[in-house]
Amino acid sequence: xxxxLRRAGVVVMILFGLLFVNLNWVQAYKADDYRNSDYNGRVxxxxxxxxxxxxxxxxxxxxATSKATQDELKYLRTYPAGEAYTPVVGYKPVNLAETGIxxxxxxxxxGTSDLLFADRIREMFxxxxxxxxxxxTISARAQETAFNQxxxxxxxAKKGAVVALDPTTGAIQALVSMPSFDPNPLVSHxxxxxxxxxxxxxxxxxxxxxxxxxxxxxxxxxxxxxIDSAAALESDINPDTVLxxxxxxxxxxxxxxxxxxxGVNCPSTLSLERALTISCNTFFSRLCVDKLSAExxxxxxxxxxxxxxxxxxxxxxxxxxxxxxxxxxDMLRPDGEQDPALLAQSCIGQSDVRMTPLQGALIAAxxxxxxxxxxxxxxxxxxxxxxxxxxxxxxxxRERQPISDDTAGxxxxxxxxxxxxxxxxxxxxxxxxxxxxxxxxxxxxGAPDHGWFIGYVLKDGKPISAVCVFLERAxxxxxxxxxxxxxxxxxxxxxxxxxx
Length: 500
Hints:
By secondary structure, this protein is an alpha+beta fold. It has helices spanning 3-36, 41-47, 86-89, 100-104, 106-110, 117-124, 140-151, 191-203, 225-233, 272-278, 281-291, 294-304, 340-346, 357-368, 405-421, 478-496; strands spanning 55-56, 62-68, 75-78, 133-136, 159-165, 172-178, 242-244, 248-249, 258-259, 269-271, 312-314, 320-322, 373-374, 379-383, 390-393, 398-400, 433-441, 450-459, 462-472.
């Protein structure tokens, strides 16, 4: 055999060898990926052959269901409750990526979960079965109150979020993001129309696809003073301790002084409780620089859940929607030494401090629950297709204890003064004890300030709900309006529980 033929034979052998290796790679390692790919038409036909399970609130309101059709895909996903629940439920499209509970509980809703193995066996003997049903912790009354109050707020804010949860269990009672959107067009079997709707939403400058309650962080303003107060109380300062305040404060090495919000008359000296009640910026900046430290503030915030990059919201022990980590930012100079100017700004929730609305609700819930922070969750139960077999029921789980019960009691005393005598008066609920903290956060570049409120409601000392309301670029009166909305949401939770 001459040399050119020999070389050609070697090349052909190598090519056949590579083809053989690739074939085995596809069959042995990539088969499941290709079989389950969203782009595999046979997978779609098989998936839509079985009716997908429903998603419901704990009191039975149907949020997502599947209806029979006459087209090739035998069931159409529908969302009868509309956009009020989209940040929780998400959506399950034909060719796009699913989101929310639809994604977190996809296997169970589709009927392919191992928990539904017996139903699939029955299916082999000719008995049709559907996917499993997911029961959420959401209070329909609280969710819809939060959505309507946020959308119709009195300061003209176009964006915002509300989170409410049970401080004793972590069960989420309401989770709203504004603006929201109707998920129904996104699940159309006309995939071109669904893609066009997604493109429209994605191009919207108001970013309705963002879940502002979980995935976005914002400067928390004066709500961060609850963290400062917790650090102070656990450093041998009590609510009655008197420290300097004043109309302005120039931190060491700072370029400009810190002042108080318009209308806040902060005396030269005042107690910790009074400073929180009237939201005295100069008091808290001095407190952090003179009595505490950047290390102490960052450690306290971390104890409350800041910097947590592993938190998800769905099942307690399963997959869920990823929550953005809240951050305290940098409070040090390049040489590693504490920067008093950055620390002073950070302690009033400015500089690089950033927080999710969920984190704000968790702070209030921790104070209400004697210093125990419970893991937040959305899924109450997983029920079989017959709605009687229960495969999973949430068992509340303690996440952390950032403060002692004594410190929590002192913080409640102070936060209740905020609502009774200070900036949070509009959150009051007759016959109930409400505590909270307002926050106004500068937004930079001359944009209107954000408005915040975090708070809780108790009856006979027992926690009922903790809430965070965030109004993006709300401007003047934003924090007061946030307090009013919070009061309405907590009252809705009370009504849903029969007024207990």
